[in-house]
Amino acid sequence: MPHVIVKLYSGRSDQQKARLAEEITKAVMAALKQGEESISVGIEDVVPQDWTEKVYKPDILGKPETIYKKPGYNPL
67 CB contacts (<8 Å, ≥6 apart)? Predict the structure, then answer.
């Protein structure tokens, strides 16, 4: 039962988020050979000024063992 959480800068439309969720669902289905009914996708908006404290430090720096694609930036 994969549940994917996407955190991104706020400002995307609901249509963009729905499209992203659809594409993520397709990718998970293909990569893990799972049916669509077992996949859920959550999208969390983060204002840019909060990115470092709410995402980068706790989720990227704080959990390096979970990062399979590292970002190409360093906001610190």
Answer: 60
Strands 40-46 and 3-9: parallel
pTM for this structure? 0.90
Query: Rounded to an integer, what distance in angstroms lies between the CA atom of residue 41 and that of residue 4?
Result: 5
The verdict on whether 2 is a catalytic residue reads yes
Q: Into how many domains does the chain fold?
A: 1
To which H or E segment does residue 43 belong?
strand 40-46
- Please identify which of the residues 2, 48, 64, 75 carries the catalytic annotation: 2
DSSP letters for 10-27: S---HHHHHHHHHHHHHH
CATH number, domain containing residue 15:
3.30.429.10
Phi, psi of 6 (to 5 degrees): -115, 125
Express each pLDDT in 34-52 by its tens digit: 999 999 999 999 999 999 9
